[in-house]
Amino acid sequence: xxxxxxxxxxxxxxxxxxxxxxxxxxxxxxxxxxxxxxxxxxxxxxxxxxxxxxxxxxxxxxxxxxxxxxxxxxxxxxxxxxxxxxxxxxxxxxxxxxxxxxxxxxxxxxxxxxxxxxxxxxxxxxxxxxxxxxxxxxxxxxxxxxxxxxxxxxxxxxxxxxxxxxxxxxxxxxxxxxxxxxxxxxxxxxxxxxxxxxxxxxxxxxxxxxxxxxxxxxxxxxxxxxx
Length: 227
Prior knowledge:
Layout (H helix, E strand, L loop, with lengths): L1 H4 L7 E2 L2 E2 L1 H11 L11 H18 L10 H17 L12 H22 L1 H6 L11 H44 L4 H38 L3
Antiparallel strand pairs: 1-2
């Protein structure tokens, strides 16, 4: 029973061919495309308003050089939100529960921010490794600690997203299993447990959106240090 709880995180395959590529490409198919008419429909207007508000809020602390990342951040935000939300549907697979996929997003984007900082302002980028006013005996130790913390950033990005979604899916499955087990024996307790399951599902919807926002927000903060 315990091993079956983790079967939902296994990448589905058909005839030995992994279907994770279809799960990743599906969100882009669901996005509405602008029509050829002068006036957009309500869905397109709502999508445009959301993207504009998110982009303005995210890029507010960045200078003009960081605004080049607006399209990338907005696309990544919509992509992660859509994948996380679709993963809450029954009999679906959530690609963002795979640490390899999240690290594939986190490492290149984090590395791009570091390379931009080293290219544009190497003195300031290296200055982040040593806080101002540090006593001389602590300089080697602090440089090592700051370097380790710098390289841990992409790992923290990927693990945070994976752990939050995985924990939520496991809790939902555990409580749903408890509801089915308790229903024939203790209907009242099963109904109360089902109410808890409903509240947990609402919480997971919020977590799916918040974790996508936090992922992109932290990338923008890393970019802010290097532009």
